[in-house]
């Protein structure tokens, strides 16, 4: 009987130990309790929508400054077949902690030792695609490439994909960091053949006085204008004209004898006209022939111009959060791009996991301006200079040597915040602390309104 009781006690003890072990193992996974829930649905970051023709290569210059390169046959349907009919693509970027907050994106990560870490982001985006209302998948043989606009050229960041089923981030190696300019992006535009021009100062004609079967007769009504704007041409034994098929022509003069090195025998030329009627006809023919290409180039150029204009504004906005040397040095003339391939649709993050801020750790409770207790949800802290979002329930960690802003949502949907100046006057570094929050009197429903209250006031 004693042995039986002993066995039961041992089994009971083992059961307790097993439960405790499971609790301790599961505890670090608390990070996965964060769900993709926007705290203010009306202010959530809205995705931009594009209709893609999947049978040809497509490049999108997104307003954020990011560049999306989509090869043909990049999408698969649910059965694994290549999609050939139009695809609806949605894309949105997250560059700062407020954008991440408004989207409700989880920003914690449990490392191999079970420690909960917080992501510092170097750029994050969400991309989804559908065909006829049904979600499509990435074609692993023809992956989409995204040049993510970033505000850090540090190589410490890793690439993570978000698994919506397990609500966790999966690390997938590194991205490629480079710097680009507007000029470089414009150089990537499709090339249109040069348009006909009015003849200029050094324009010349070519003709053959001796050959009855004149091989230059097709050029008898046109003039050639040297591309370099310098004089070219002379009487010669032969003249060769090569159409380069891009609106320019290579004209070669074959001399009777040896020439000095200062005389050019070959020059690159535009096609030009001195007769206005002939010029107008040639220009109209050109516009009709290349109408589709010219329209596409113009549209892409406008997209690049708009994206760079928006990027310059974002640089100024970003510096509200982070006064970083690499951003100041750019001055809007260049931008940092972090390039990666898309493995799956959804959220993709370029991050560096780090520990919560140190220096102060307090047990927080909250009151309004009048000292009345309030309950806050979606409580977060931002440390200026770090592109991270620290979410808290009761225990608040912060670095007293940094500028900090803490905010959350009241039960009736109003923004309550503890400003950087409030933190400066906060002497407590531990224990229980009552945060006297500034509660905005009205519901804020746009990104700009919230940005103005938290970071521009």
UniProtKB/TrEMBL annotation:
Biological source species: Flavobacterium helocola
PROSITE patterns: PROKAR_LIPOPROTEIN
Taxonomic superkingdom: Bacteria
Protein name, as recorded: Uncharacterized protein
């Amino acid at each position: 009987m004693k042995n039986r009781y002993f066995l039961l006690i041992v089994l009971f003890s083992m059961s307790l130990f097993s439960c405790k072990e499971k609790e301790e193992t599961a505890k670090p996974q608390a990070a996965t309790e964060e769900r993709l829930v926007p705290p203010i649905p009306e202010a959530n970051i809205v995705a931009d929508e594009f209709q893609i023709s999947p049978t040809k290569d497509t490049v999108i210059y997104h307003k954020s400054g990011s560049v999306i390169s989509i090869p043909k046959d990049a999408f698969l349907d649910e059965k694994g077949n290549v999609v050939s009919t139009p695809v609806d693509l949605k894309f949105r970027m997250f560059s700062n902690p407020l954008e991440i907050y408004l989207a409700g994106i989880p920003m914690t990560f449990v490392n191999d030792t079970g420690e909960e870490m917080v992501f510092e982001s170097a750029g994050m985006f969400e991309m989804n695609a559908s065909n006829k209302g049904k979600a499509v998948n990435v074609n692993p043989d023809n992956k989409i490439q995204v040049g993510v606009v970033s505000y850090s050229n540090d190589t410490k960041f890793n690439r993570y994909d978000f698994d919506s089923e397990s609500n966790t981030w999966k690390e997938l190696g590194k991205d490629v960091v480079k710097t680009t300019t507007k000029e470089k992006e414009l150089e990537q535009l499709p090339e249109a053949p040069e348009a006909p021009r009015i003849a200029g100062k050094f324009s010349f004609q070519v003709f053959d006085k001796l050959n009855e079967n004149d091989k230059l007769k097709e050029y008898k009504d046109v003039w050639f204008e040297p591309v370099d704007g310098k004089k070219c041409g002379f009487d010669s034994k032969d003249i060769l004209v090569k159409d380069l098929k891009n609106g320019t022509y290579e004209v070669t003069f074959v001399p009777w004898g040896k020439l000095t090195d200062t005389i050019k025998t070959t020059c690159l030329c535009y096609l030009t006209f001195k007769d206005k009627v002939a010029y107008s006809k040639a220009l109209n023919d050109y516009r009709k022939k290349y109408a589709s290409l010219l329209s596409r180039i113009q549209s892409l150029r406008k997209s690049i111009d708009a994206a760079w204009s928006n990027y310059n504004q974002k640089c100024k906005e970003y510096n509200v959060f982070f006064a970083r040397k690499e951003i100041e040095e750019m001055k809007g003339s260049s931008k940092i791009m972090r390039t990666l391939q898309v493995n799956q649709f959804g959220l993709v993050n370029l991050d560096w996991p780090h520990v919560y801020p140190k220096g102060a750790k307090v047990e927080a409770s909250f009151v309004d301006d009048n000292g009345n207790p309030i309950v806050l949800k979606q409580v977060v802290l931002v440390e200026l200079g770090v592109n991270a979002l620290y979410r808290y329930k009761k225990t608040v960690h912060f670095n007293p040597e940094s500028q900090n802003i803490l905010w959350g949502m009241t039960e009736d949907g109003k923004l309550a915040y503890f400003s950087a100046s409030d933190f400066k006057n906060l002497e407590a570094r531990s224990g229980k602390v009552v945060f006297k929050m500034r509660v905005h009197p009205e519901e804020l429903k746009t990104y700009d309104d919230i940005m103005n209250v938290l970071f521009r006031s």
